Amino acid sequence: MMENIHLAAEDEDDLYTGYNDFNPTFDSEDLDNDVGFQQAVRTSHGRRPPMTAKFPGTAIGGRPIGTSFGSRMPMGSSMGRPATGAVQDAGAARPMTAVRAAGYSSSLARGSTFDPLGQSKGPAPPLEAKNEDTPEEKIKILEKKVNDLIEESCMAQANGDLQLALEKAKEAGRKERALVRQREQTGTADHITLDLTYSVLFNLANQYANNDMNTEALNTYQVIVKNKMFNNAGRLKVNMANIYFKQKNYPKAIKFYRMALDQISNAHTEMRIKIMQNIGVAFIRMGQYSDAITSLEHIMSESPNIKTGFNLILCYYAIGDREKMKKSFQKLICVPLGIDEEDKYIPANDDPHTNLVIEAIKNDQLHQMERERKALAEKYIMTSAKLIAPAIETSFAAGFDWCVDMVKSSQYVELANDLEINKAITYLRQKDFNQAVETLKMFEKKDSRVKSAAATNLSFLYFLEKDFDQADRYADLAMNADRYNPAALINKGNTVFVKQDYEKAAEFYKEALRNDSSCTEALYNLGLTHKRLGRLEEALDSFIKLHAILRNSAQVMYQLASLYEMLEDPHQAIEWLMQLISVTPTDPWVLAKLGELYDSEGDKSQAFQYYYESFRYFPSNISVIEWLGAYYIDTQFCEKAIQYFERATLIQPNQVVWQLMVASCYRRSGNYQKALETYKDIHRKFPDNAECLRFLVRLCTDMGLKEVQEYATKLKKVEKMKEIREQRVKSGRENSARGRREGSASSGGSQSQIRTPPTKPSGTLITYLLVHIQ
């Protein structure tokens, strides 16, 4: 074991040699006396400013970051070494490095207190107020006012207040000019905002156009168009052309449309098509159909649409080109609508999520737009077919058949039945009722919707012809095909009404109203039915509801006046009649009714005014003539009454009463000679008139004429004959009454009933002619 032990020789180095030796550079005890170190502290390196960081809103905001370069108090090290770093001045020492960022500071000397959050400094100073007196700030405020005025003008236009919109647009224009002047004064004319100027002028021109100030609008548009600094300002010539079109200055409109067309590139296809369509319409308005055809044919070849196709058909119809009309109609029915099929909105399975989605989109705005587009297309096709059918073939029936065949082979198959219905309506307009009936009878075996429409029209036709049994039959057929068809229910109610079954008629009218609450025919007829049943309050309620829908309907107003008269409220009746004559001021029957109501109220002057107006518009109304003549007699103006009774004599020459009234007026006015001549003339025409003979006897006696005995003898004969006639009539009545009593006793009490024919309704029944299939 000793061989592994190594003994150090005396001449080897000590293992711990140098442990107590150190570099005198690291000796910090005498640094205060070290001249070289003190000189280094005083160099520029030690005098660098402290690095601070001010980040508002952070934990260290407003406080310097403690680094070795900051100023803090010197601290002695654990070995007695003074803190290194330079001192900036005699009062502040170098800051601590690790704790300064946390809010601590070593500079607590000279009476400073511990305040890590800086609360002793007080609140932060207020923000410096923006100086609005500077020219730049004034310009910015003015620009904002101009933009606000433009926005207010647009909002006023959207709300329908066009006058306010124009005032705001004018004020925006004034502010914008003031803004330009202010920029020129401040020497910043280069910074004028062209977009703002364009917006002001464009809005002002629009508001002028909306307020029908076309000259001012054109002048404003001209200012924009002539300014070359505005980009794409040439497109506004379309707006100018629209104004000329509105003024019916079609040549000028076409000129500006073409100028706008030249400034729009081929990339904007849709806009170019619309402008060319406007050019075509302007040519149609001018009657230059050949030029219009050129534009419209180009559109139909590039981007066909329904309106252009319809206008093209109109042009060819105007020039009478049959073949072109046919080709244009074929193009029209081939125009794609770009809408989805209706099957899309029908649930295909029981998936609740899918059904919810379909229910949500079934009546959304997109589907409504699709329905409107389809309805518009069907309207144009129907109108085109009705227009060209009589012109494209030798007869209108053959033309309709061709149109029906074309429609059946297109995407509008369901319109074929509508065209057949319109064919029947055309027969009606031509008063060819037999052909109309035959055409409509063809639909009896069609689907329920078409069958209901045809049967409704057939019921209407037979009702007009007073064939109420056939009208009732087809009304039942229409109801069986479609129970929810209000027109069929109305026709059924009308057929029941004329049979005087008013309760049942009222039920049909009410059912029609349940199916269509806005059906005015049903509401009117229901009011007439209640009136016939004596339910005046219910009738009044029906007609008041109808008046809320048809504000200017003369029939409704007259019915309301009639009901108030029946309810013994003449003031309300007069008020409704006054409203009625504001709608129909020349209706003599309404004026006569007003005169009658004022007469019943005792206001003779107002009654005379309305009776006279009625006579002026219709001088053949006997009741009005009689009232006016009697009025002049009562007011002792018999001479004026004569002209009215003479007119009545002309209207009813076989009525002796009017001639007697003329003679009486002469007698009352003291013209006895004229009265005598008139009575003699009456006696020649009516020799058996006892009243005329009495006046002749009286006049001849008063005037001392010799004819008095002659007329007295004739008067006695006439009175005797009158007595004999009365005796005969009286005995005849007694014999007939005795015979009826004897017949009743011999028949054992059985009694025959005599049914009187139904009376004609006092009110006009409004029937419903179904032109289009519902």
UniProtKB/TrEMBL annotation:
Low complexity bias spans: 744-755
A GO cellular component annotation in the UniProt record: ciliary basal body
Localization terms from the record: Cell projection, Cilium, Flagellum; Cytoplasm, Cytoskeleton, Cilium basal body; Cytoplasm, Cytoskeleton, Microtubule organizing center, Centrosome, Centriole
UniProt-listed GO biological process terms: inner ear receptor cell stereocilium organization; intraciliary transport; kidney development; non-motile cilium assembly; regulation of cilium assembly
Biased composition (Basic and acidic residues): 724-743
Top-level lineage group: Eukaryota
Keyword set, alphabetical order: Cell projection, Cilium, Cilium biogenesis/degradation, Cytoplasm, Cytoskeleton, Flagellum, Repeat, TPR repeat
Positions of TPR repeats: 234-267, 273-306, 486-519, 520-553, 554-587, 588-621, 622-655
Region described as Disordered: 41-64, 110-134, 724-761
Keyword Cytoplasm listed: yes
InterPro entries noted in UniProt: TPR-like_helical_dom_sf (IPR011990), TPR_rpt (IPR019734)
GO molecular function: kinesin binding
This protein's record includes keyword Repeat: yes
Role noted for this protein: Positively regulates primary cilium biogenesis. Also involved in autophagy since it is required for trafficking of ATG16L and the expansion of the autophagic compartment.
Subunit structure: Component of the IFT complex B, at least composed of IFT20, IFT22, IFT25, IFT27, IFT46, IFT52, TRAF3IP1/IFT54, IFT57, IFT74, IFT80, IFT81, and IFT88. Interacts with IFT20, IFT22, IFT25, IFT27, IFT52, TRAF3IP1, IFT74, IFT80 and IFT81. Interacts with IFT172. Interacts with IFT57. Interacts with IFT46. Interacts with IFT70B. Interacts with C2CD3. Interacts with ENTR1 (via N-terminus). Interacts with LRRC56. Interacts with DZIP1. Interacts with CCDC38. Interacts with CCDC146. Interacts with CFAP53.
Annotated protein name in UniProt: Intraflagellar transport protein 88 homolog
Organism annotation: Astyanax mexicanus
